[in-house]
Amino acid sequence: MLEPHLKKPSNKGLPFAPEIMILVTLRYYATGSFQKLDGDVMNICQQSVSRIITTVSNSIALQMKMFVKFPSTVEDINQVKQKFFEVAQFPGVIRCIDCTHIKIRSPGGMSSEVYRNRKGFFSINVQAVTRPNLEFFDLVARWPGSTHDSFIYNSSSVKQSLNIGDLQGQGMLLGDSGYAVSSVCLTPFLSPNSIGQEMYNNYHIVTNLGFETIKTAD
């Protein structure tokens, strides 16, 4: 899948084999170690390791739409609903939504402070829509850390699709209290005042735990 994007048409400059490029990149992803250490293991200079990681990462990103997508058939939609239901018997759920902050260095410049989030560090606020087995349906990774979750959602193609009816009738979207409740997005009660509302909140939280697991892994 990645080879056409990694393999050079000639041997000019002694290019690295695609398999080596992928292994170097996977090692960097898995260990988070400095690029120089990765290069030392395979006798590759740091500059080459940096180029390899960039090239492979871009090549992987090009494949995103093959895997990160909403279910398109009735059978797939019903299967997702059933998997969510099996978590905490919450009916009609087909997706969960939330944002998570990916830490970055200060980008510098006049607008760098817009990347500083409420926790005080610089980040990209990434919106993810997930399914019950910890896979992604949709990702939005272009907003600075100071951007509110609800603004990202309201500006996203997911919200636009709901507005025009592309995703209506498929099922419910679960979000936390940072989102506005609607006919397609269900959020917890802020101050539950009945047993039913408390049960609803409990089932909502348990069903949404899959996404929290992803955020913890971050």
TrEMBL record:
Task: Give a yes or no for keyword Hydrolase in this entry.
Answer: yes
- As recorded in UniProt, coiled-coil segments are none
Question: GO CC terms for this protein?
Answer: nucleus
Q: Which cofactor does it need?
A: a divalent metal cation
Q: Which InterPro entries match?
A: HARBI1-like, HARBI1_dom
Q: Where in the cell is it found?
A: Nucleus
DDE Tnp4 domain spans which residues? 97-191
- Keywords of this entry: Hydrolase, Metal-binding, Nuclease, Nucleus
Q: Which domain of life is it from?
A: Eukaryota
The answer on whether this UniProt entry bears the keyword Nucleus reads: yes
Gene Ontology molecular function, alphabetical:
hydrolase activity; metal ion binding; nuclease activity
Q: Which family does it belong to?
A: Belongs to the HARBI1 family.
Q: What is this protein called?
A: DDE Tnp4 domain-containing protein
User: Source species, please?
Assistant: Parnassius mnemosyne
